[in-house]
Amino acid sequence: MKITRDLYQGSLALLTDFYQLTMAYAYWKSGKGEQQAVFNLSFRKHPFQSGFTLAAGLDYLIDFCRNFRFDEDDLAYLSEMKTKDGNPTFETGFIEYLRKLEFACDIEAVEEGTVVFPHIPLVKVTGPLIQCQLLETPLLNIINFQTLIATKAARICFAAQGKSVLEFGLRRAQGIDGALAASRASYIGGCSATSNVMAGKLFGIPVSGTHAHSWIMSFDSELEAFKAYAEAFPDHCVFLVDTYDTIKGVANAIEVGRILREKGRELVGIRIDSGDLAYYSNIAREMLDQAGFPNAKIVASNDLDEHIITSLIVQDASIDVWGVGTKLVTAFDQPALGAVYKLAAIQTSEGKWEPRVKVSQQAIKINVPGRQQVFRFSKNGRAVADMICLEGSDVGRDQFTILDPIDPTRMKKINTKGLEVESLLKPIFQKGQKVYERPNIHEIKQKAQRNLEYFDKTHKRLVNPHIYPVGLEESLYQLRNSLVFKMKNNDGEENHI
């Protein structure tokens, strides 16, 4: 089957905040538009009070950048914009600049399926200041959501303890695009299949589903409905048993299962979508086993998430497959990741790179300056620590000290002898040309599972996870502090505690 890769083939240049365009215009007016700059996309806190985050969305980012341009109707719309006094918002010369604009940035990014942590740059964009600025909003939109959902899916799959998790969230998702992106990210995070048929077509995700209560209600009896469904799908019978009475529903499923067996077919399973899932699943398991259907699966759904699944497993619920919808695709308990995109360095007219820092009264909002790289140290297949350092740093040293950018009392010395090291930021675009070989979604999912195995289970527990060591290399930490002190003392500015 041919898998569609370019989901967004037309221009999406106007999928941005208005202030990105006003800044771009002001850069152009001031002559700074072509000045080279570096921006980093990162996040400040793990979602869901998790101990890890799973990167996703790079494939969408690639499609967006490959098609980044202003079409004639985009330019016509911008040309018609007026200020409050009735003058054109943008000069004709700027409109012409946008007409001729060709994507020319370098992009490095963490690959999808990589476990990541706060302050690590997930995407690094280097290029003309205007282009870097115009990419901010769409890149955040893409990476924020898919990373959030992939992380939620991974947590749910951990809770399921190896049993299959199906993503059933299309009808409750945040619009058409939200549903597609959520299905894709959920599969990367570990889900086995989706109910979303369009996601199956576009991305090659396995699709799954049986029937709804309306199927049962359209017949005079539940038994009649089960028999009719078995006629249509004799090899794929998973009967929804809770339309009227769950226990009677299981009995009817068993009766139709016997009919299927007489025809050389087997009952695949039942689904319970309401009520006390632990209680009814255990009764259903006992009934199915006693009737000679020990291999029939019990599927459970009904507003599940990682915490409810954990509770049901503790109760020894007899559930083989978990159908998760609303709380997965909407990231029910945390609706946004909160990633940010900050200027980290700018090139002078002499070609020198100067680091830039944003100063804030909140330490967590002070960005990490400079052109960065991230290295992950590991030993015997287990991650040891991540180090954020300046690009070009020598990683061949025997020892490093890393410091938490928010809490300097959290520091770690890394003895590199016997450790493996990997650079997490991979080249994606060079001078606007794609240089990255895109894996398919199944390879991305496999990478995510391998990546999660690199980390101790204490980092992945759902409540109060152990904190994995991530920090700034000592010289970068000192650079950041010196820039903060310099900016706070600029112009003799009085500082307050």
UniProtKB/TrEMBL annotation:
Ligase found in the keyword field: yes
GO terms classed as biological process: NAD+ biosynthetic process via the salvage pathway
Record PTM text: Transiently phosphorylated on a His residue during the reaction cycle. Phosphorylation strongly increases the affinity for substrates and increases the rate of nicotinate D-ribonucleotide production. Dephosphorylation regenerates the low-affinity form of the enzyme, leading to product release.
The reaction(s) this protein catalyses: 5-phospho-alpha-D-ribose 1-diphosphate + nicotinate + ATP + H2O = nicotinate beta-D-ribonucleotide + ADP + phosphate + diphosphate
GO molecular function, one term: nicotinamide phosphoribosyltransferase activity
Known function: Catalyzes the first step in the biosynthesis of NAD from nicotinic acid, the ATP-dependent synthesis of beta-nicotinate D-ribonucleotide from nicotinate and 5-phospho-D-ribose 1-phosphate.
Name of the protein described by the UniProt record: Nicotinate phosphoribosyltransferase
Species whose genome carries this gene: Mariniradius saccharolyticus AK6
Lineage: Bacteria, Pseudomonadati, Bacteroidota, Cytophagia, Cytophagales
